[in-house]
Inverse folding.
């Protein structure tokens, strides 16, 4: 059967027949080499994505499913910012009647300045799962090898003892060997189940990785943008499966040990067993996903801050030191939930506390500004900005506030200013921190409040005031892994809030 040779759609309108070499994904037309050159020169079409004409079939085969509503098989024309999903006309009447943030898809797509980073985020999450599962698979295989070595070590140990006792020893030794083999088999079966589950997740993620790679090569940004939401759901499911598997005891490392009977060498007549087989479970290294459940988001940076809600968890007082005066200037939270406070009064100390307010360690009296291990070891010294007492780093950006000008800054690591936003006069912004989305939280000591700025710096709102107990707040920290905001007054009164959107 002869292969149909595509012709240039633009030339056909001029009654000219020329073989097409490319396919414009935006215009959905075949074009020849001459028309392609013109296409790339024109202002309206110079940014259109053109693929080889032989790749057209692959692109078109996925286009309909990506641009049509899965529920109603109608064209996707709108996007709901509230639910972060594209929708057709029928969807609007059925599911989005009360949604205030509905916009035409082309308008939303044009306003997406960060789609490249969102798509890269999908790729990073896929790669994150692959690397994590591959690492645990390797550990499970090593665990099986280690179990065999441990088994052989125990058997050898038993056989060495066997030479010094009578025939009764042989019976007990046989019993132990059988128990050991049985336990190894049980644990290997558990490991095989874990490997099977891991391999299943890995296979699904590998397929999705291939789809993402194809999307980069054969889809326009608009097509990839539409497909990304479906892929995000798939990735989120695999992330949940992966996280769930890690919390399951089946992923723990297994070791077999022998607890020798204390009467083994002394009381042959009373010997009934060599020892007890002990199986210990040591949690495997938890490889946390860096960006779980963070799919493409079209919620504007400004509107996102109005969805932030705080729920108070607790408050507590910092215990006084050798000096009754307390001057808390910084705060942080460790992975285990313990809280570290810097007391810049004459006490010159770090205070390590539990969330219940229990003092665990009081240490360090060196007044210099340094990175310090809890043991007191100085890890490195820190350069201090001329006009800012505090700064924080997130996604290779530096954030700091200047009390003298009541301003908040986002800057690149080389110092170039990305944006600058102002608080009210005499707010005196000081302590600063960010959440995982890039929203900036600032403690204003003079006005006794905490502000939050959108990640673009264009809008801000008040989160906490003196009515919430703030009095000269300076220390502030956002624990991104737990979505917990910590705020502390200079006097030592601290507050913990759960942050939700």
């Amino acid at each position: 059967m002869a292969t149909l040779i595509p012709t240039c759609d633009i030339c056909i309108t001029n009654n000219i027949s020329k073989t097409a070499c490319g396919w414009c994904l935006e215009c959905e037309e075949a074009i020849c080499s001459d028309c392609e050159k013109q296409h790339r020169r024109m202002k309206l079409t110079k940014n259109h994505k053109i693929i080889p004409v032989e790749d057209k079939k692959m692109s078109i085969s996925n286009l309909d499913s990506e641009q049509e509503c899965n529920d109603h098989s109608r064209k996707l024309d709108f996007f709901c910012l509230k639910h972060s999903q594209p929708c057709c006309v029928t969807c609007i009447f059925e599911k989005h009647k009360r949604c205030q943030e509905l916009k035409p898809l082309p308008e939303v797509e044009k306003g997406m300045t960060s789609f490249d980073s969102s798509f890269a985020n999908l790729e990073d999450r896929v790669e994150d799962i692959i690397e994590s599962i591959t690492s645990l698979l390797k550990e499970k295989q090593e665990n099986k090898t280690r179990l065999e070595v441990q088994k052989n070590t125990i058997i050898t140990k038993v056989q060495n003892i066997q030479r010094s006792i009578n025939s009764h020893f042989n019976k007990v030794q046989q019993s132990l060997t059988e128990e050991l083999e049985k336990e190894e088999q049980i644990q290997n079966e558990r490991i095989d189940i874990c490997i099977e589950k891991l391999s299943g997740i890995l296979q699904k993620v590998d397929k999705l990785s291939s789809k993402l790679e194809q999307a980069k090569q054969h889809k326009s940004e608009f097509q990839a943008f539409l497909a990304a939401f479906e892929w995000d759901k798939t990735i989120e499911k695999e992330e949940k499966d992966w996280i769930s598997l890690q919390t399951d005891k089946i992923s723990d490392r297994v070791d077999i040990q022998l607890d020798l009977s204390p009467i083994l060498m002394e009381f042959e007549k009373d010997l009934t067993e060599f020892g007890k087989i002990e199986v210990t479970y040591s949690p495997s290294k938890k490889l946390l996903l860096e960006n779980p459940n963070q799919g493409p988001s079209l919620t504007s940076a400004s509107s996102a801050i109005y969805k932030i809600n705080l729920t108070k968890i607790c408050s507590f007082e910092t215990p006084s030191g050798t000096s009754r005066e307390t001057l808390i200037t910084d705060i942080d939270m460790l992975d285990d939930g313990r809280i570290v406070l810097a007391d810049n009064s004459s006490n010159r100390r770090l205070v390590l506390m539990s969330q219940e307010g229990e003092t665990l360690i009081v240490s360090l009296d060196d007044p210099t500004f340094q990175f310090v291990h809890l043991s007191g070891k100085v890890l490195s010294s820190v350069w201090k900005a001329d006009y800012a007492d505090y700064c924080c780093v997130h996604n290779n950006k530096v954030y700091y506030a200047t009390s003298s000008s009541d301003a908040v800054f986002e800057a690149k690591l080389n110092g170039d200013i990305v944006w600058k936003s102002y608080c009210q006069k005499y707010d005196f912004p000081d302590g600063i921190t960010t959440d995982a989305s890039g929203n900036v939280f600032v403690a204003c000591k003079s006005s006794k409040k905490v502000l939050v700025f959108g990640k673009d710096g264009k809008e801000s709102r008040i989160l906490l005031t003196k009515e919430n107990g703030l009095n000269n707040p300076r220390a502030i920290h956002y624990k991104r892994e737990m979505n917990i905001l910590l705020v502390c007054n200079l006097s030592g009164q601290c507050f913990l809030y759960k942050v939700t959107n």
